[in-house]
């Protein structure tokens, strides 16, 4: 998953209602009315939140083969696996390296004095 996909997925999950919808879908396939009943929200509001999760690639929809008015929602397992891998990598404490500052009293001439020196010369 690229950075833009990660941002979009995390943004979509940052809303408490969408997080609740997503959590319900982790239990298995759900229809709009089941989600609305359980979260005590309107069908149109659930549809709005599911659309955002779908646009992020986290949720899939499938129409009932006998009555296309019914739509069933489920987690997109492939996207979830990619998201899980990306988050695990991002938050892996083994990635943290000892701090090697490029700036500070010892390196001041390299990074901090040059802009200040340029400003002093411009003022003269």
Give the arrangement of secondary structure elements.
Blueprint: H1 3-13, H2 16-25, E1 30-31, H3 32-39, H4 43-55, E2 59-63, E3 71-75, H5 77-90, H6 108-111, H7 113-123
Antiparallel strand pairs: 1-3, 2-3
The CATH topology turns out to be Arc Repressor Mutant, subunit A
CATH superfamily: Winged helix-like DNA-binding domain superfamily/Winged helix DNA-binding domain
CATH architecture: Orthogonal Bundle
Instruction: Calculate the mean pLDDT score and round it.
Output: 89
* Class per helix and strand makeup: mainly alpha
Largest β sheet strand count, sense and barrel closure: 3 strands, antiparallel
- Uncertain ranges: none
- Spatially, the strands of the biggest sheet line up as 1-3-2
Could you characterize what this model shows?
The protein is mainly alpha-helical. It has one domain: Orthogonal Bundle (Arc Repressor Mutant, subunit A), CATH 1.10.10. 57% of the residues lie in helices and 10% in strands. The chain contains seven helices and three strands; from the N terminus they run H-H-E-H-H-E-E-H-H-H. It has helices at 3-13, 16-25, 32-39, 43-55, 77-90, 108-111, 113-123, and strands at residues 30-31, 59-63, 71-75. It has a three-stranded antiparallel sheet. Helix 2 (16-25) crosses helix 4 (43-55) and helix 3 (32-39) packs across helix 4 (43-55). It is elongated.
């Amino acid at each position: 998953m690229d950075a833009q996909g990660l941002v979009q997925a995390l943004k979509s999950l940052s809303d408490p209602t969408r997080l609740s919808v997503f959590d319900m879908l982790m239990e298995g396939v759900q229809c709009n009315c089941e989600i609305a009943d359980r979260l005590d929200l309107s069908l149109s509001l659930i549809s709005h939140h599911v659309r955002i999760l779908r646009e992020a690639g986290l949720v899939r929809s499938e129409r009932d083969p006998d009555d296309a008015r019914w739509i069933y929602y489920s987690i997109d397992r492939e996207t979830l696996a990619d998201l899980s891998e990306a988050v695990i990598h991002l938050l892996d404490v083994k990635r943290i390296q000892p701090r090697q500052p490029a700036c500070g009293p010892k390196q001041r001439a390299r990074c901090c004095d040059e802009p200040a020196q340029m400003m002093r010369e411009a003022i003269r």
